[in-house]
Amino acid sequence: MNHVILIGRLTGTPEVVKTENDVSRTVINLAVQRTYKNQDGLYETDFLRLVLWNGIADRACEYCKKGDVVCIRGRLQVRNYLDEDGKKKFITEVIVETISFVSSTKAIDKENEKES
Prior knowledge:
By secondary structure, the protein is an alpha+beta fold. Helix content is about 20%, strand content about 55%.
């Protein structure tokens, strides 16, 4: 079974790119803090590449921006490609199936406007 659940901060603001077939696609990085400290007493962070498709990509671009905390559920995918020198490279990505907006700055801004 290939199933991943992550909670972390977006390292950039998502942007939709339309493919040749008019399909929405977004690639973004998620900073996920480890649950333990290293030998220096600091928490390390992993930066994971997320790929979102279609409606999930559109919604993420509409509601999320850099620094927002999100929870994603998806699957790991490893693919390969040839670099500029013709060498085979491998890349690991998380294909996002669902996204939950844990702390969206846009949503907080809207709440603050209502209270004013």
